[in-house]
Design brief:
mainly beta, 2 helices, globular
């Protein structure tokens, strides 16, 4: 990446900078008298430039690198060196690494400031760790590598910010730890040194849980409140939701506003700041793969009303939309018949014509490169398009391209490429002090990322900011005042979208209140809070008996807060069984199961105890991670203590857990299964059945 233009003066400046860096490097050698490594290509790398891992410095063992075994085990590229280079990644990678090895890269820093280092890594086990240092003096904390699931599946990790002075430095990548289950410190494709901007840390903390799971949902800030729409609720398989919720940072509460008629995912979304209206253009309807539509809707945040407007000329999805000077623009995307063909189409229509129904969409200058799932922003009357992917389903080639559209001249200009090619960050894009922030998204191999990139349109320069608290694709990440809210998304591991909210601090920035804020949307009554268990719930069919299998989906009648409590009112499992309840019932286990189970939720069942005695509870459960736990109450008394949900082979691979022994009196009683704690994937587990047995 470079922020320079391609003219002759810029080339002379670059050549001069490289010559100056070499002179500094040579002076350092002469003055120190030490043997130091030198750039592999003859000139140091610069910030924003891709540093291929195999292009480590010249100088040999214990000077430019340290490898614990002689010879190049991979046999590629630099056969005389003892670093193990093999085919992979973007061409070649450094592999067969172990704890204690290191690599040097000479880097020229043009100006003093805060910088981060990113590394593209692959390893099929968790626990490996690396750190970065400059000249042996400035060290980052150890960066723990994620389990990428395979040697050829890659994820990007980012160091903590480091303060570097202008000049030539030697970056050392040190391998601190092997993975937990294999003797390896990972495979390495490339590194990037990038200037950072803004705060050195966001100091993340947990916020109020989202009322719905969302991945690739829509999120926009209107009049100081965060609106969240639609999105996928699960990934394996894809399930879709259509709820609308709003978060008020003043009260720190979510309010449910109803459901949306617009497509649940893949719409282009634009906000008219003058009215607070939100426009949805095109998109996909229904569960994956969905059907592309040409529908256009306007959502009025002041009245909580939806209006259908004149359609696009063609059914499109996974494009993007923006409003400039009273004109709505829609760019790019895919259509249903061939989802791996991207389009560069650009349509526009004035809002006055659109809202009156009197106008038609017209074409404007097409975007330079057809792609989908790119993000966009408006700064100073121009529309910036960034990143995205080519080939929605099969290719999924991540893009770093940045372009700007000038509506006045109906023309495009290519800008500096993004430091991290990525997509699926449309609802994680916002403006801070005239700069465009892109939080989270997807990178290669359908992996989620915690990267936060920032673009300065004035300087045509990209920065890397401190990362998100988790890898998240399709997340809603927006700034309100001095707070940075990150809501839901997909972490790339759990198989379901999270309900977690994180809140960070963004010091030094404020958002002025609107001059004439519209009246608040009508308050829709929320489900009542949980109530003490009483005899009010009634059996779904008849009371269960000792030894009888209790299917989890056959919980009591009585509704929310009486027979069960669910954290939202939508059945994210998609089954029509028990329609009208908010419990998430899906196909699985022995037929149906209760899934998407969050901490604090509960289910009741009525059981008949024929005779007093000692009993145990068994339950068939599943989870892809450890950490989930629940307990079972009888008549409002916790009889079982905490029961751990184990990690199983998959969401549809169940294990039976058994509680400790407890005593019960004879009679009919309400049994409540209470969800105590979720695993790191934000799920307590899936529940297939329960059984009360004699101890």
């Amino acid at each position: 990446m470079s922020s320079f233009n391609s003219g002759g003066n810029s080339r002379r400046r670059l050549l001069g900078a490289a010559t100056s860096a070499l002179e500094i490097l040579e002076s350092r050698r002469l003055l120190s008298g030490a043997v130091v490594s030198s750039p592999f290509h003859g000139v140091p790398f610069t910030p924003g430039q891709l540093i291929q891992a195999e292009d480590f410095d010249l100088g040999g063992e214990d000077v430019a690198y340290h490898d614990t075994t002689p010879g190049n085990a991979g046999g590629s590229y630099r056969p005389s060196e003892s670093v193990d280079i093999e085919a992979g990644g973007t061409g070649l990678v450094v592999g067969s690494t172990v704890k204690g090895e290191w690599l040097n890269y000479t880097v020229s820093i043009p100006s003093s400031g805060i910088y981060t280092v990113e590394a593209r890594v692959a390893i099929p086990s968790a626990g490996a760790g690396i750190h970065f240092s400059f000249d042996g003096l400035i060290n980052s904390p150890t960066v723990v590598l994620p389990n990428t699931k395979a040697w050829d599946q890659w994820q990007t990790v980012t160091s903590a910010p480091m303060n570097l002075s202008a000049g030539v430095h030697v970056l050392r990548v040190s391998l601190d730890n092997n993975a937990n289950t294999i003797k390896s410190a990972g495979n390495y494709d490339w590194f990037i040194v990038s200037p950072t901007d803004g705060p050195s840390s966001f100091n993340w903390a947990q916020g109020v849980q989202s009322p719905a799971r969302r991945f690739e949902g829509y999120g926009r800030v209107v009049n100081g409140k965060l609106y969240a729409f639609g999105g996928y609720t699960s990934i394996t398989p894809f399930g879709v939701g259509n709820t609308v919720d709003v978060f008020n940072p003043t009260t720190n509460k979510w309010t449910h506003l109803g459901t949306m008629p617009a497509p649940e995912t893949h719409s282009g979304v634009a906000v008219d700041d003058s009215t607070g209206d939100v426009y949805f253009v095109g998109g996909l309807r229904g569960n994956y793969p969905g059907v592309a539509t040409s529908d256009v809707y306007r959502y009025d945040t002041a009245t909580n009303r939806w209006t259908q407007l004149p359609s696009l000329p063609f059914a499109m999805a996974a494009g993007n939309a923006q409003i400039v000077n009273g004109v709505l623009h829609y760019f790019g995307g895919i259509e249903s018949s061939s989802r791996d063909i991207d389009y560069s189409n650009h349509y526009e229509i004035s809002l006055s014509n659109l809202n009156s129904g009197s106008g038609q969409w017209t074409t404007a200058a097409p975007m330079p490169t057809p792609r989908d799932h790119f993000t966009s922003a408006v700064v100073n009357g121009k529309i910036y398009l960034m990143g995205g992917e080519i080939g929605h389903d099969a290719l999924h080639e991540q893009q770093s391209e940045t372009d700007v559209y000038n509506p006045t001249t109906d023309s495009w200009t290519r800008l500096a490429d993004m430091p991290v090619p990525k997509s699926h960050d449309e609802s994680g894009t916002f403006i801070v002090n005239g700069k465009i922030v892109l939080a989270g998204g997807q990178v290669d191999d359908f992996q989620s990322t915690n990267n936060i990139s920032e673009y300065d349109p004035t300087a045509n320069q990209w920065y890397i900011l401190p990362p998100l608290p988790n890898t998240l694709a399709g997340t809603i990440a927006q700034k309100i005042g001095s707070k940075f809210y990150v809501v839901s998304g997909y972490d790339g591991r759990s198989g379901i979208a999270t309900m977690q909210t994180w809140v960070g601090n963004w010091p030094g920035t404020t958002t002025p209140p609107p001059s004439n804020p519209p009246p608040p949307p009508p308050v829709i009554k929320q489900p009542p809070p949980p109530v003490p268990i009483s005899t009010s719930p009634t059996p779904f069919k008849a009371p269960f008996t000792v030894g009888q299998t209790i299917q989890a989906e056959d919980f009591n009648n009585g509704g929310e807060g009486v027979a069960y409590h669910d954290n939202d009112s939508v059945n994210h499992g998609g089954s029509l069984y028990r329609a009208g309840t908010g419990v998430d019932i899906e196909h699985g286990g022995t037929g149906l199961d209760v899934g998407y189970v969050g901490a604090g939720e509960w289910l009741t069942y009525t059981v008949n105890i024929a005779q007093a005695g000692n009993y145990r509870i068994q339950s068939s459960v599943s989870n892809t991670m450890t950490g989930g736990a629940f307990h079972v109450e009888f008549g409002g008394v916790n009889k079982t203590g905490s029961i751990a949900v184990p990690k199983t082979a998959g969401w549809n691979s169940y294990q039976t857990v058994t509680s400790q022994s407890f005593s019960l009196s004879a009679g009919t009683i309400v049994m409540r299964v209470y969800m105590d704690k979720a695993a790191a994937n934000m799920a307590v587990g899936n529940f297939d059945w329960l059984k009360l047995i004699s101890a």
